[in-house]
Design a protein that fits this description.
alpha/beta; 14 strands; about 15% strand; Aspartate Aminotransferase, domain 1; single chain; Aspartate Aminotransferase, domain 2; 7-stranded mixed sheet; 2 domains; 17 helices
């Protein structure tokens, strides 16, 4: 073990969360950030701050990385979001090279002006065809798409009804658009119905946007989409489904849970991201109305006032969609699912529990933040790169190690990861138990 992992972690570094610093006090906006930094740096100095790491040569299944202090680590990589392993695919890289030679690396404009390229126009058509929808708007990131679709459509008198576990981009978009935000229990469509009933009993004039996800990234579960869409029709509401984590990589034809649940073309609005499966940054919103598309282009600020996707981004995403829709894409999905099921089985055999249904996201339950941090501290030295997830991404007391599976992971990668995680947890539990035991007095020791 290194000196850090040998050292007893101070209690202050094992307790507390980012929730404690969300509303800092004081008139000096800059100085009041110092409380968070002091707590963060205590964790950093004790090897308990595993965020803001950087890979040395891309998200390979085994990679070199460094933490935000520059400390190097090498291990099997279950931390990257590259579900079908397309970021290093030969055809993707070749497409990028050819596009750079032809167009350079920058779109140099907003989509509302002259930032579009022939690649982005073709990409919009491809996504619409892929989802069996009519229209698509592209965004610079998936986060911008989630924020932008809500802020673009919803006005202050309208209502947003959201699954309580929806992504940050969706919640931030709602908060920016209206004060009329209603959260329903996770995946509880009957609870959603009760909220819609109460809203329409008082307000028949204003709009309601119902927001959920195709696959929830922290719990790896999915709603009953047909029921939600029917609810929206009953109460004159509009449904938005975020498909960032399942589109392209789940289902026989790669359409995610919208495809699995036979809802292709039947959801009001679909938004998603390219950064999980399609080897690039960027996002989109798909709908069945040219009027909605044009309105979002000019009233959804992240689309209007951001630079457009670069030609190399649009071209590589387009190529990724081509692969996803091919026989090779089907093979990659099968390889990814084989790895997912193997990881879940081996975790169970090792006595490690996890959340949700089979998907590329396998979140291993830890519980307390203290235990999860001690586990995370040991992983790099043992040879595993995986993500600690704690509040605000998940509720307090529900910390977890999030493992993200790629099609190119080998059986040895999986076995090594499970062995390391089990060892790290056993050592962390022992350390945590030892730290809770009262110190013995000198007299007792001498006796």
């Amino acid at each position: 073990m290194s000196d850090i992992t040998k050292a007893t972690a101070p209690t202050a570094a094992l307790t507390g969360s980012m929730r404690d610093f969300r509303v800092p006090g004081g008139a000096d906006l800059l100085k009041r950030t110092e409380g968070f930094f002091k707590w963060q740096d205590l964790r950093r100095q004790n090897g308990l701050w595993p965020f803001s790491r950087a890979t040395e040569d891309g998200p390979n299944t085994i990679c070199m990385a460094q933490d935000d202090r520059g400390n190097k680590m090498r291990g099997v990589n279950f931390a990257s979001q590259d579900y079908l392993s397309l970021s290093s695919h030969a055809a993707i890289k070749e497409t990028a090279k050819q596009t750079i030679e032809r167009c350079g690396v920058h779109s140099a404009g907003s989509p509302a002006l002259v930032g579009n390229t022939s690649y982005s126009v073709a990409l919009e058509r491809k996504i619409a065809e892929f989802l069996n929808m009519e229209e698509v708007v592209l965004y610079p990131t998936g986060w911008a798409a989630g924020f932008g679709v809500i802020k673009g459509l919803v006005r202050s008198a309208d209502h947003v009804v959201m699954d309580m576990l929806t992504h940050s981009c969706l919640q931030e978009g709602a908060n920016a658009a209206t004060n009329n935000i209603h959260l329903f229990r996770h995946l509880d469509n009957e609870y959603c119905r009760n909220i819609l009933t109460k809203i329409r009993a008082k307000d028949k004039e204003n709009g309601i946007l119902v927001v959920t996800e195709g696959l929830f990234s922290m719990d790896s579960d999915t709603p009953k989409l047909a029921e939600l869409q029917e609810l929206c029709r009953e109460f004159n509401a509009t449904l938005v489904v975020d498909v960032a984590h399942d589109l392209g990589n789940l289902g026989r034809i790669g359409r995610g849970h919208i495809g699995v649940q036979d809802m292709l073309g039947n959801v009001d609005v679909v938004m998603g991201s390219f950064s999980k499966t399609f080897a690039s940054n960027g996002g989109f919103v798909a709908c069945n109305s040219r009027a909605v598309r044009e309105y979002l282009r000019f009233y959804s600020a992240p689309a209007t006032f951001s630079n457009a996707l670069s030609p190399v981004q649009a071209a590589t995403i387009l190529k990724a969609f081509e692969i996803v829709g091919s026989v090779e894409g089907r093979v990659l999905r099968l390889e990814m699912m084989t790895n997912i099921l193997s990881l879940r089985d081996q975790l169970s055999e090792a006595g490690l529990d996890y959340y949700g249904d089979p998907s590329a996201i396998v979140c291993v339950k830890m519980g307390s933040e203290g235990l999860a941090r001690l586990v995370s501290r040991r992983l790099p030295e043992l040879g595993l790169i995986a993500n600690l997830v704690e509040f605000p991404a998940v509720p307090k007391g529900a910390a977890r190690i999030r493992m993200q599976v790629m099609a190119n992971h080998s059986e040895k990668n999986i076995a090594d990861a499970v062995r390391i995680l089990k060892t790290a947890r056993e050592e962390a539990e022992f350390e945590l138990e030892r730290s809770r035991q009262p110190a013995q007095s000198p007299q007792h020791v001498a006796a």
